[in-house]
Each structure stands twice: as structure tokens, then as C-alpha cells.
């Protein structure tokens, strides 16, 4: 087949979404405001179609655009997960935005464009394509965080995110320029060859550290996490749900591809850095979450800790470790979207309730919602037999297999600490005196998402651990032959 057609076929889902985003933008201009809800459902449908359009990996056409993008099983699983997560985030947003009078077509456009950027991130195999994907995703989310222009919290959150995001973009570009300067190429394959040919230059190591710092910011790993609590609290809750799920997965997949495909020869240099980032994320996430009273800030520090657990797999630097990271992120995606669907049901007549104390006695006023919160928090804590236990088990075993015993011990200890604040919320739900009852919303997509997530984390022991592990193994194995 002629190469331009191969290239187009490779990025067909992203091209489809980009064109669809422009069409939705034009439709939003001409349609009445009350039709925006239909545009939201259309956006979710377009994302599902994009997931279906992701091509199966073909060794004969594994790369496109002069090897700037890769189409392997790793890319396949990441793109599908990103598209489906974005679709769910769109679906659970309609009720909230309708109640808050924030239902605007530009939100749908921004989610679609952000999904394009994230899909490019998980497929990129060139420094330039990495930057394009990261910035397209980031610029869209900056705007989404400030969607509620009348809210000082939302405006402040978006401004902090934008300023610190610009700093991380500077790190990314400076790191890329150093890597290019010392290897003479922007393509991962050439960088890998340079990193494995003799003693790497100190400039290449510095470039890698700057690059790691920039991506660590995108996944809110410590010590680059400072934006996370304020943005999670200030952004509209559906935006927080989206931000906590899909961009984190895309960032972790990008982390994996860069370290494994571009810098296999520098593992002795990047493994200690990743060790420190993983350990700091777990410790800061666990200790800081204990004192939180806002449920969204609690989830912010929870996500910081979970990124630390996922980074344990990457730090191992093995196929088993990368497989554990992929499985962890897929399971984290389900748990996080489920929790935020539950948070979206915390509404009273005067508006959204965000304090943990608002959940007091929920078991007496809304027993169904109480069971959902309980199942999802127990899974986030990693308590067996919930599926979150197996997510941590995979990465801890990878660390032990690679001799990272201290990191694994830190992971176990911080998991115990994290269990305390998850159980504290559950205690508030089941044993505290009832607070004012939440309004029963008629938005079925939110309740269906919450119930589906709770069922997955509960029934995962029997039905889903195997499939998650199989997908993760296939994704990881597709990178390591290229690295070798």
C-alpha cells in the first residue's frame, strides 16, 4: 500500500475525532443551547466509534509518518482505554452541567481534542510527536478547568494549572533539545541506539531527567504534584473526573514507551530517579490525604499515591514491571471513574456537597450509594478480594522480582496508611449520625457508571483479573522486542 494511505490508516481514529470536533464546534454555533445535551451524547458516541476504528497492529505497517507514531498492542490498548474513559467522562457530565447551567458545546469539543492529544501521546515514537500530543491534551484541559468562569475557585485552578503546565512544557522542550543535541535525532529508535553505544554523555542524562520531570508533572507524581489538589477542588467535578482518569493513563503509557523504547541503555541512570519519584508519590499521597476534609482533595492525594504505585512497575524496568503498570492503570481507570460518579451524586437542593462530613450516615439515607462508595474505596485501598488488591499485587511482585525490596516495602507501608483514610470515609458513611439527605438525581448515566464500576471492582476476582493481566502482558511484550 502507498505510504500516505498507511499513515492515514494508522491515525484514522485521531483524524476522525479531529474532524468531528470541528463539526461539533460548528453545530454548537448554530444549534440552540438546549440541544447541547444531545451534542454531549453525540461526543460520547464519536469517542466510542474512534475506539472501534483503532486498527489492529500490523507488523508490516507498524509505524507511520516517518516512524513518528507506532501502532502496536501497547498503543492499541492505550488508545482504546483513553477513548472509552473520555466517553464515560462526557456521559456523566450532562446532569452536573445542566444543574449548574454550564452545559456548553465547547466542553464536548475540548474533550474530543484532548482525546486526540492523549491518543497521540500513547502512540508517539518521536520527540516532536510527543510534544504535539502532550500540548494538545494539556491546552484542552487548561480551558476545561476554568469552564465555570463565574467561580473564583475554578478560575484560580485553571490559572495555577496553566502556569505550572507552562513550566513543565519548558522542561519537556529543554530535555528534548538536550536529547536531540547529544544523539542527533528525535526518533526513539535512534535515541535508543545512541544510549546503548558506549558511555552516554552527561548531557543526554540531563535531558532525560528534564523529560522525566515534565511527564511526572502531567501524571501528578511527587514532587511535581503541587497543582493537583487545588485543580481537583476548583475545577467542575466532571472535569476533575476526566482529569483524574484519562490524562493520567496517557501520561503513564507515554512514560513507559519513552523509558523502554528510547532509553533502554540508560536504565542505570533513570531507575534511581524513578525510584525516588515513586517513593515520594506514595509517601506524600498517603500522609497528605489523612488530614483532608474535602472529598475531591482527598481523591487528589489518592491519585498522587496511586501514580506512585504504578511507577513501581516502571521502575522495575522489566517486561513484568511494565505489564504490572498497564494493568494497574486500567484498573485505576475503572475505580476512579466510579468514585467520581458517586461524588456527582452528592447533591443537595442548595448545590453540590464536597465535604467528607456530608457523607455522614449515608447508609441510612441512601444505602445504595453507601454500598457503592464502600466497594470502590475498599478497592482503591487494595483490600482483597476487590480488584484493586491485584493491581498492587502485580506491581509489588515486579518490584520484588527486580530486587527493589525497599521500594516494595514502602509501597506496602503506604498502602496500610492509605487504608486508614479510606476506612475513615467508610466509617463516616456507616456509623456517623445522618446528615441532610442528598437529592435523588434522575441522571441515569451517573448511577449506571457508579454501579458498573462497583460491580467490576467486586467481581473482578472471578471474571476480570485474567483479562486485565492478558491485555497488560500483550501490551508490554510489544515494546520489549523493539527495545532489544
Automatic annotation (TrEMBL):
Keyword Translocase in record: yes
Predominant location: membrane
Source superkingdom: Bacteria
InterPro entries recorded: NADH-Q_OxRdtase_suN/2, ND/Mrp_TM
Subcellular location(s) per record: Cell membrane; Endomembrane system; Membrane
Membrane topology: Multi-pass membrane protein
E.C. code: 7.1.1.-
Membrane-spanning segments: 15-32, 39-56, 76-95, 107-124, 159-182, 202-227, 239-260, 272-291, 325-346, 367-391, 403-425, 446-469
Keyword list, A-Z: Cell membrane, Membrane, NAD, Quinone, Translocase, Transmembrane, Transmembrane helix, Transport, Ubiquinone
The reaction(s) this protein catalyses: a quinone + NADH + 5 H(+)(in) = a quinol + NAD(+) + 4 H(+)(out)
The keyword Transmembrane helix is annotated on this UniProt entry: yes
All residue ranges annotated as the NADH:quinone oxidoreductase/Mrp antiporter transmembrane domain in the record: 124-417
NCBIfam families on file: NDH_I_N (TIGR01770), PRK05777.1-3 (NF004440)
Record function comment: NDH-1 shuttles electrons from NADH, via FMN and iron-sulfur (Fe-S) centers, to quinones in the respiratory chain. The immediate electron acceptor for the enzyme in this species is believed to be ubiquinone. Couples the redox reaction to proton translocation (for every two electrons transferred, four hydrogen ions are translocated across the cytoplasmic membrane), and thus conserves the redox energy in a proton gradient.
Record-stated family: Belongs to the complex I subunit 2 family.
Subunit-level organization: NDH-1 is composed of 14 different subunits. Subunits NuoA, H, J, K, L, M, N constitute the membrane sector of the complex.
Name used for this protein in its record: NADH-quinone oxidoreductase subunit N
